[in-house]
Amino acid sequence: KGYFSREHKMAGKKVVVTAGPTRERIDPVRFLTNFSSGKMGYAMAAAAAEMGAETILISGPVSLSVPTGVTLVQVESAEDMLQAVEAHYETADYVVKTAAVADYRPEAMANQKIKKQEGNSTIVLERTVDILKQLGQHKKNQVLIGFAAETNNVSQYAKDKLTRKNADYIVANDVSEAQAGFESDTNRVTIYGKHGFEQAFEMMTKQQLARQLLELITDKEA
Ligand code: CTP
Ligand code: CA
């Protein structure tokens, strides 16, 4: 298989993939997070590497092994992820934002374990930086691919995110559907692009889907 074979369509390209959840610390023993397993993001990184790309995988805490040929950068919080992505952004050809980044973090982290007291308690939250939106604002030739897990109004929310974040594609899935959620090995998505581009995929494994998504995107961007 040669350098320019169909199998190595992404040869010479640098792909940055973010995956998994982020953790936002409350105190030394507690944090806020979400149900992201990292499976879709790891599958995207594996597919990019198989297609010949130099692949950087910036991952929140997950229990998955690093795919062959992929460079792993481990991060914890949304802020860490932002910094890691920014360090690679300039030289990236494709940025695939599969990560489920926390939208809020505790305004302050307690340095000592918070002790329980009588009655209720309140944690004050502040917004994290929207990494994809930030990348969209400073986009040069990079192709930006976002992911959106929705429970309702999937197409409307996906299209909103495409414009709001200046992304090139949003891959959306309905997590209320069986076998298309966070822990699942399968997924069923619709990809939305500029100029009203829209394509629905069948239910398939996250590995197969990752490959088909990257094939589609590289063909369209060629
Ligand atoms: N994203 C990001 N930084 C954030 C939040 C989201 O980069 N702080 C990215 C995700 O990695 C994903 C895309 O934006 O690729 C869409 O994430 P999603 O949570 O669906 O979008 P939000 O704008 O946070 O909207 P929502 O209110 O639906 O959570
Ligand atoms: Ca969000």
TrEMBL record:
* Protein residues bound to CTP: 103, 113, 147, 161, 165
Give yes or no: UniProt keyword rRNA-binding. Answer: no
| Involved pathway(s) | Cofactor biosynthesis; coenzyme A biosynthesis; CoA from (R)-pantothenate: step 2/5; Cofactor biosynthesis; coenzyme A biosynthesis; CoA from (R)-pantothenate: step 3/5
Reactions catalysed, as given in the entry:
(R)-4'-phosphopantothenate + L-cysteine + CTP = N-[(R)-4-phosphopantothenoyl]-L-cysteine + CMP + diphosphate + H(+); N-[(R)-4-phosphopantothenoyl]-L-cysteine + H(+) = (R)-4'-phosphopantetheine + CO2
Q: What Enzyme Commission number(s) appear in the record?
A: 4.1.1.36, 6.3.2.5
Which keywords belong to this entry?
A: Decarboxylase, Flavoprotein, FMN, Ligase, Lyase, Magnesium, Metal-binding, Multifunctional enzyme
Q: Does the keyword Chaperone apply?
A: no
Q: Which cofactor does it need?
A: FMN; Mg(2+)
**Where do the record's region annotations for Phosphopantothenate--cysteine ligase lie?**
15-222
> Which part of the chain is the DNA/pantothenate metabolism flavoprotein C-terminal domain?
10-218
Q: How is the cofactor bound?
A: Binds 1 FMN per subunit.
The record describes the protein's role as: Catalyzes two steps in the biosynthesis of coenzyme A. In the first step cysteine is conjugated to 4'-phosphopantothenate to form 4-phosphopantothenoylcysteine, in the latter compound is decarboxylated to form 4'-phosphopantotheine. Catalyzes two sequential steps in the biosynthesis of coenzyme A. In the first step cysteine is conjugated to 4'-phosphopantothenate to form 4-phosphopantothenoylcysteine. In the second step the latter compound is decarboxylated to form 4'-phosphopantotheine.
Q: Which family does it belong to?
A: In the C-terminal section; belongs to the PPC synthetase family.
* Protein name, as recorded: Coenzyme A biosynthesis bifunctional protein CoaBC
From which organism does this entry originate? Planococcus antarcticus DSM 14505
In the complete protein, the residues contained here run 176 to 397 of 397
